[in-house]
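DOMAIN: structural biology
WANTED: fold as tokens
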Amino acid sequence: MAEVDLPVLNRSEPLPAPVPSAPRVQRLLGVALLLLLAVAEAVECGDALALWAQLTPREREVARHVAVGATNKAIARTLVPECSPRSVKTHRANLFAKLGVANDNALGRWMARFESMLA
């Protein structure tokens, strides 16, 4: 029988770390990805709240009406105290700029995404 040379471990050297199995690595990567997504979601929600806080109370009121598809004229009649459709148009332009949305549809999507946080 042939002799096999086995490596001699030096007791002062630490043992090499075990290599994790592929399924374990995949699970760890999955958990890390979920944590990153959760952090990104929290940051996005925080940013949305900060933007919403920049709106005036009237702009918030107009935003809620615009998000459900109301026209300037209908919004003007609904607001208390009433205002002109031209004022509603100005409020719309201001809130679109502050929230960084381009149109009614984008505002509706933005509002739907964050409606549970917006009081």
